[in-house]
Amino acid sequence: MINNKENELENEQQRLLDQKETLLKEILQDILVAKRELLIANQNFNFADNDELIDLYSYQIIVAQSKCDYLLKKARDNGISHSQFSSSNLQQVNL
């Protein structure tokens, strides 16, 4: 009976650790996507040739930067350090 309870507890702990790891990987992947969106918005802004496009890309830059800031805070709040992000083996995201 005690062994069964111990096994259940160990299984639950492992499940929680797996969920945490999945969450952290998702956050890191979302950061990569957001950084790519910011890069694209900046590139588009640099090539905008009329006032409407300049306005559009200005707003896209603001949105993308806000998204990056939010995700970086979320990563920090979940214990992800810069070194973990830099050394992660995540694939680069292509949009």
Number of beta strands: 0
Low-confidence region ranges: 89-95
Helix-strand sequence: HHH
The helicity comes to over 70%
3D shape: rod-shaped
The overall number of domains is: 1
Report on this model:
The chain is mainly alpha-helical and 95 residues long. It has one domain (2-87). Helix content is 83%, strand content 0%. 5% of the residues are buried.
Topology of helices and strands:
Layout: H1 2-47, H2 51-77, H3 82-87
In short:
The protein has 95 residues and is an all-alpha fold.
Name the descriptors:
mainly alpha; 95 residues
